[in-house]
Structures are given as structure tokens and as C-alpha cells.
Design brief:
This protein is an alpha+beta fold. Helix content is 23%, strand content 29%. It has a 3-stranded antiparallel beta sheet with strand order 1-2-3. Strand 1 and strand 2 form a beta hairpin. The model has no long low-confidence stretch (mean pLDDT 80).
Length: 69
């Protein structure tokens, strides 16, 4: 992995779980959602979240736990 590549955990817009998003040069390339959602990387490219709009880590874990089968 080079310095322009990174992996982040983002909230899946379909199920609310934490999905792994692979980035290269600031562009999302791949999404892996544990819920099996078919979310394309382009969904995250269009997102421009502001700091105040991001849920806390505890809120994200709570949402994921509630969605767990």
C-alpha cells in the first residue's frame, strides 16, 4: 500500500453497518459491506460529509448492532 492508498470505515447507506472503503489518491475504488450490500464506490465519491454531520463511533456501533441479524 502506498501513501496515496488508504482504507476507511464508512457507514453503509443501505444497511447502516460499517463498510470498508478502499481509496487511492482521494478517490474511492472499492466497498466491502459485511451486510452484502451492493453499494458502489461512486456513492462515497459524491458524499461530502462535514464534521458536524458525522455520527460518533458509539452511534455507528449501536446502529450496526441493531441491524445485526
Amino acid at each position: 500500500m502506498s501513501t496515496s492508498e488508504r482504507l476507511t470505515w464508512e457507514t453503509c447507506p443501505s444497511c447502516g453497518r460499517s463498510a470498508a472503503v478502499g481509496w487511492r489518491g482521494g478517490i474511492p475504488l472499492d466497498v466491502d459491506c459485511p451486510g452484502g450490500c451492493a453499494v458502489g464506490a461512486e456513492v462515497f465519491a459524491r458524499r461530502t460529509p462535514r464534521t458536524g454531520d458525522l455520527p460518533s463511533p458509539a452511534a455507528r456501533w449501536t446502529a450496526a448492532a441493531r441491524a445485526w441479524p
